[in-house]
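Annual report, structural modelling task.

Input specification for the S-adenosylmethionine complex:
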Amino acid sequence: METKKIKRPLQGATVQKKNLGKAEGTESHGCGGHSHDHDQAGFNQKPVCKLFENEAFQEICGETMHPGGLELTEKGIALCGLKKGAKILDVGCGKGETAFFLNKEHGFDLVGIDQSEILVEQAKKAYPKLNFQMGDADYLEFPSSTFDGVLMECVLSLCDMKEEVLHECWCVLKQGGKLILSDLYLREPSKSKAMKKEESPIEVKTCMTGALIKEELLTLLEETGFIDIEWMDCSETILSFTANAIMKYGSLEKFWDEMLPEGVNKNLFCDSVCSGKPGYFLLVATKKKE
Ligand SMILES: C[S@@+](CC[C@H](N)C(=O)[O-])C[C@H]1O[C@@H](n2cnc3c(N)ncnc32)[C@H](O)[C@@H]1O
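The model returned the following structure:
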């Protein structure tokens, strides 16, 4: 992937960056002045979540790897009023199913990026005419104001630096462009029990362990410069994933037992995942026109 550092000045975003100063010896692309830990090839060498590369996991998920599938994607698109030919970035595109669907059904011009080399290869093989690239949500290597829409389906919860990721989306969107997000969120955050390091020394990263709190996410979006946020609870979409897993493995515990690496306390994991009452949302937000 080309590693041009693009000058991308902040264009009126009201985002208040916390501790995002440029570290010594690292380059910034100029959008918000944050630094990135890229290697010489320009790609960030942080660990990739292997769960989504697992064929057994993909089978349980079905066509796409987000609850609600393409029907939910279509709901988000319907709220955006995007025209044929619109340029869309699918961040965390996985196997490329959504990109293919949007290109075929709506005639959008799609770019799909994912941090997993295996999934990008899978997407390229399945849909060779579409544009899939390795890429990291923390640092979108596109010029500012490139896309009419940015899509992130069940990806933000996997990102540690949610504030940065949203700001990156804001930067690459054109004015008036649409951000379409769907993801897990905690419906009862006060009851959420995060696993402690001493309980499970192996860190497990899933959409559930990084699930968001509605109010925090809405505040982050507003601070980043997004307006007209339309939020929809779609928690019922989690049911079919859960049902598939139970039908195939007998129980959720057994399912996670198969999916998670050795050394993870599966009971504590399930307890921690269910404790905050995970739900699923779809939202559309707009990058304000100057
Ligand atoms: C739950 S899957 C969803 C895949 C796809 N959006 C879909 O709905 O089928 C999450 C995807 O996000 C990717 N991902 C996670 N963190 C990422 C990051 N920082 N940058 C790019 N992709 C990321 C994973 O590799 C995985 O393909």
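Residues 49, 52, 64-66, 91-94, 97-98, 114-116, 119, 135-138, 153-155, 158-159, 207 surround S-adenosylmethionine (CB under 6 Å).
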